[in-house]
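=== RUN LOG ===
request id: a7f3
mode: sequence -> structure
chains: 1
length: 144
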Amino acid sequence: MESSRVETIETLLVSVNRLIRTAVQSTGNTTSPAVWRTLGILETSQPLRVGELATASRVSQPTMTRLVGGMLDDGLVTRSVDPDDSRGQRIGITEAGRAHLLEWRATLARTVGPVFADLDDDQWDVLHEASALIATRTRTEIPA
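=== RESULT ===
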């Protein structure tokens, strides 16, 4: 029983990864995945210091510093003095960054939609229940 559960989790992870990779490739978007990942982190955990953001995004601090620089130039994030340590800075998402992320997610959803177009109502119910369960376990906000 336990190995079946482990296999289910493995299948879920591999399948979701493939689904996202296929969707991203289909869009032709050249924005670095690190930008999307960073915006997603900031959407729920902002503002963060550059080092915290680097750790959460799984990149080095110098890489995150460069990434934040480009995102600042694009108006996707803000930089402010850390109120707990004036030597540090906190990075937050802007409304433009939030809108950019929401549009990206909508683009991915439109791209992936045809994969699920032939599901019947019962299958949609199962998919909805599974996505809601995963969202609660990953603290993902569920759209109304």
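=== NOTES ===
Residues 2-27 form the longest helix (26 residues).
The radius of gyration is 18 Å.
=== END ===
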